Amino acid sequence: MEKVGKTNPAATANILSKIFFWWLNPLFRIGSKRRLDEHDMYEVLPEDRSDHLGEELQSYWDREVLNATKEMQAPSLAKALIRCYWKSYSVLGFFTLLEEVIKVVQPVVLGKMIEYFESYDPNNVKAFHETLGYAAGLSSLTIGLTLLHHLYFYHVQRAGMKIRVAMCHMIYKKALSLSSLAMGKTTTGQIVNLLSNDVNKFDEVTIFLHFLWVGPLQAAAVVGLLWVEIGPSCLAGMVVLMFLMPTQTMFGRLFSKFRSKTAVLTDNRIRTMNEVVSGIRIIKMYAWEKPFAALVSNVRHKEISKIMKSSYLRGLNMASFFCASKIILFVTFTLYVLLGNTISASRVFVTVSLYTAVRLTVTLFFPSAIEKLFESRVSIRRIQEFLLLDEITKGGTALPPEEKRESSVELQNLTCYWDKNLDAPTLQNVSFSLNANQLLAVIGPVVVLLSSILGELPAEKGVLDVKGQMTYAAQQPWVFPGTIRSNILFGKEFNQQKYDRVIKACALKRDLELLPAGDQTVIGDRGATLSGGQKARVNLARAVYQDADVYLLDDPLSAVDAEVGRHLFEKCICGLLRRKPRILVTHQLQYLKEADQIVILKEGHMVAKGTYTELLQSGVDFASLLKKNEEEEQQQPQQPPPPPQDFPARGRTLSQISALSQTSSVQSVKDGDQLPGETVQTVPEESRGQGTIGTKLYMKYLQAGANMAVLLFVMLVNVLAQVSYIMQDWWLAFWAAEQEKLDNKNSSIPIGQNVTEKLDLNLYLGVYAGLTASTIVFGFMRNLLLFNILVRSAQALHNRMFNSILRTPVRFFDINPIGRVLNRFSKDIGQLDSLMPLTFVDFIQVFLQIIGVIAVAASVIPWILIPVLPLLVVFIFLRRYFLKTSREIKRLEGTTRSPVFSHLSSSLQGLWTIRAFGAEERFQKAFDAHQDLHSGAWFLFLTTSRWFAVRLDGICAIFITITTFGCLLLRNQLDAGSVGLALTYAVTLMGMFQWGVRQSAEVENMMTSVERVVEYTELQSEAPWETQKRPPPDWPSKGLVTFDQVSFSYSEDDQPVLHNLKAMFRPQEKVGIVGRTGAGKSSLVSALFRLAEPQGKIYIDGVVTSEIGLHDLRQKMSIIPQDPVLFTGTMRKNLDPFSQHSDEALWNALDEVQLKSAVDELPQKLETQLAESGSNFSVGQRQLVCLARAILRKNRILIIDEATANVDPRTDELIQKTIREKFRECTVLTIAHRLNTIVDSDRILVLDAGRIQAFDEPFVLLQDPDGIFYKMVQQTGKQEAAALLEAAKQAYNSSQRPAMAANGHVETEDGHLVIFETAL
Fold first, then answer.
1. Can you tell me the distance from the alpha carbon of 851 to that of 976, in angstroms, rounded to the nearest whole number?
2. CB atoms within 10 A of CB 1255
3. Which residues contact 25 (CB under 8 A, 6 or more apart)?
4. 151-181: per-residue pLDDT in tens?
5. How many angstroms separate the CA atoms of 1133 and 272, rounded?
6. Model's pTM, two decimal places?
7. Cα–chain-centroid distance for residue 741?
8. For residue 1036, is the peptide bond before it cis, meaning its omega torsion is within 30 degrees of 0?
9. Residue 1178, SS3?
10. What share of the chain is helix, strand, coil (3-state, %, to 5)?
11. Longest C-alpha distance within the chain, in Å?
């Protein structure tokens, strides 16, 4: 974590370097030569460090809380913020004031210059010198503005950053100490949301805040100056301006209303997408793509219609902004002329410039300031609510070393409530005491008990006394992103011997040898690279390594298979830890004999406690379960486990890993091609076109939304809008010039003849009105058209991408982490929906305006083109130079941001663990380190963009200076109107030019999103869902499955996982498929379902599966998957997404799997919405729902991929029974992990390394002591093995066998036919 960056040169830079940002030059030099990475970043300035800022604000907040409690009122976070930051922030207000003063003075100076041209007299040298002074003044004001503006901006953005960082620090600190009750009131999502969205408001609010007081001042000053210039008509313009403000604010309101509606729909769509991608294997096997596609497109349709509306609003808003100045001028001058005044160039252009100066402040900055202020008030309120939640009080202290022996836990009549408002206590009158080196086993729902011992749940009454330091292994294993070693050490120093002992005891040795980097392997978010069993063991190892006094182990044995479980129990729980007091929660009853005492909990009461023998004698209702279990398991605890070295690597046969089917996981260890690529799930840099983005991509993007003819028409409208925009100003200049000629003419007429000519007002005003109207019409038209096209292309691209994702083979999802795929659907599509159209339109508008400015200047002084060319070259070079570095910095800013969030969410998941280990301080430090890294990148992002902006505005200042002095040089050929036009336009170039360039860079950055989406629209797709060759409707009527020389690999370039399989499963036969991990059991299913195309032929009732459509094939086979997947939506949708069955059928199916009562209790029965991926059902219940699906489908072929863990014995028995009864007529293939479920099958297929090792009846297989099956049975322990043999024998004797060859084949020259005949 400790990255020592380079020291920050900003700290030591001199004043000039600070103004021009010279200290960044070395960074740009590096950036232009190679890609930047984290080592190139400067470390954060000491005053921006997370811990420093956080603690400073925390102290103000603590003081505020104290004062508020004294005065009996609610504490206010806003007060604390203001107290902490008002001094440093108010200094910046002075900058704002200076800047806005310059903006008002500029037009006045401009007016003085134009006046010189109006009363131009070649002989008046004094006036000429004066004007030279004005020109110099104008240029220096421009340059001053450049420097001031960017310094100011840099400082306010940094102020925003400081507030944000301090807030994050406080939020995280608070999150680590939330009580359980408080955790119930908030969710991980909400806290992450506070960190990702709410605190960002501070970044924005600081930029505009000062305009709240500067804005009105500036407006007043401008009105004053205008009054002097054109008298009371100026008020008309100001009225229009004042009218514009509320309409823009209203647009903003409407917009945020749409935004929040859209956000809900977007969340929905992403949640659905998340499920589709996570459950894609199941969706494909069930052939459920269509209902899901309908679901997504339905939500997307609603979302797009909202987005379209809000885009139109944005378009109107931008167009009104574009036309605003024209409308204001039109109203002002029409009134002015109608009042009988005459127009003159200086008046026109001073007015234009003053309005331009004030317009931005009044219509943009001031409303934004108000809007951001309201937004940040909401955020502050939300953060404040969070900071005021309850905190936890810690119990259990470490013992001084000499008392180490005395650690104990004592409970007397303990009663606790999760929630005071519910009347039933969650724990009632529980008493037991646990002394040194005792093992206490707890049975029943026990989360409550452990949480009260850990101090997570406050005791209501009774005594809870824990002596010694506790450590805890959670039931849901928790690992945090980092190496496996760091997960186990958890902040303790590394001690080789102790570490090795722990690894060995926790059965991790073999797993670590298999992983590419051993214990230095990096675990992705949520332990993505480890199987569930490995996570559980790492979790246990962490607790054991801590060397604490009291151990609380919450069911660490359920996620591992029996063999590993026994090893953990004997070598670790009763081995390494035998001298410590331990509380072990377990469902696995075979371990209870070893326990010193047993406590049985039921609904918060203690039903029984005592030793194993006492409980047996007292005949507790549980004892019956124990007895039965013994007969089933018949496993002697005395029997030594097999020596660890000939452990087969079975640590992986975990249900959790099924997402990567076992085969591919072992495959990957073998080929080493997959795991390393996926260990760290920071999405690797994805293929990205280096440098600029091709025109081809822009065309692809635009053509997704409209055809060429429409695009050409839109281009035309754009040009027309810009032309009429300029013509309107030009007409004013022309009018002023005509007026001037007239005035000169009239003044030369001798006195006494009152023949003064007047201009034809109707003509001039008419043309002026016409031009204004066309500006408005074209301005609005082009924006609405552009937005429409861009939103439509987002829609089209999303649909193409989604369809392509649904049709791509499963392999794609094994290689690409879910996050990467979802990222395209959330972030990239989000960019295309809302940001891209806005930026794109803005860019086109500004780009055309810049061209307009240069064109106007060139039409007045053609010579200006000579200096413009070198400036253009410099600019293009600068932009390229800047983008190289800035793109990398933007990327760094993104990649350094995600650890902040993942650290938060992984901390929240492991909150109990972190607290039980007392690691809060360390995690806080890690969080600060992540924050500082991000601040470093953010700081560079701010400063580099300022560096660029200063240089761009420098180019503009040079352009303005050249234009100004150019006008003076050519003073003999120019009239006042043209000069005014050229200069006014040149001055507007200042902010606009750099804005345009920034937007162009933004558009280019966002085009990478388009690129990524387009990349996913062109994925390879699997075989068609339906083909010409449809199987007969009642196929398969028998359920005969034949494999003929089938080989199978997950992709073309992979090693085959199955080699030349030849086997035949007869109709109605029940076949068990066994083999060690990685033998190819799941691959057999994949081949059958054509999740990738197998070589060789698979026949089902004589139809070659590879010749028919995938849906036809997959709908005819049922599968009960290894990890049961439920989808968000109603219970009915989960059972029957196509609505093919009646209610009665659904209820019958539920009844058969004994879920009827459970569903009946739900509020809306079948229509109840399930929580995210069915988390409100237990794993066992979800397994039963999958079984109900299979019952409903009534297929002849059923495949069961047996779940290893987490299904309690009752559910398991129920599933077995249902399968035997309901599917008697079907061919059933079971992939087994526990042998007792398949030992009475008709035949057993033994796979080893992708080949068939044996295929015969279980009893026959057990006669061969060298066979794999025999060895597997022996490994279960003596008594279990005897029971299995007995079961096999019974099944053998009761079955009638057809006379067939040993392996089920009769092989002749033309093999297949005979197979069919014998089978039929």
1. 22
2. 22
3. none
4. 888 999 999 999 999 999 999 999 888 887 7
5. 13
6. 0.73
7. 67
8. yes
9. coil
10. 65, 10, 25
11. 139
